[in-house]
# Entry
Amino acid sequence: MRIGRENFVTQLQFHNEKALEFLIMEHGERLISIIRKHLFTLPHLQQECLADTIVAIWNHVESFDDDNEIENWIGSVARYRCLEFLRAYQKEATIAWLIEKEIAEEKEMMVSCLDPLEQELFYRFYVGEELGKSAPKEYALPYYNMYDLLNRIDTDIFEYEKEKLPAEEKEQLHKQVLAKLNVKRRRFSFRRYVENSIHKTVPMSC
# Structure
């Protein structure tokens, strides 16, 4: 099956490996431009973060809301993975104070378009705090995890200047992502896609 912009998201939800290749070829340069901008203090980790972002998109694509633009969502995923890398490797950097400043500014920018309740959910997910059964009733929002919430964050991927990612680097990235996923070539499953679709429609219980 030929993968194009019109069926790319659906095939990615099928976990069709050709859609993974399309993601890298079509959006890899925009994603690396986001990552280089936000991980300028950790240049040696930019490629690793790019691969990690692709893996996160693959693993959480069922969280993508069709009412959103796919470019906006994957851009938000990239920004969030950058935030996690900054936090994880802050002590490693020789200019830790600059990373601390970048973390604070990026968190503020990401939550600026969320309402107060969504902002609190963002911070809860960010620090890994489970809402649990005792959570107040107002938390009964359709957000299963951070990747659902990222649909609400405004990230125009095309605002970032497109940086060059040579074909050989894209091929290497593809191999790196497959190694992370330990993906075996397989046919996509309509049953798995239907199950994912049903999961998206079930409201979150508290």
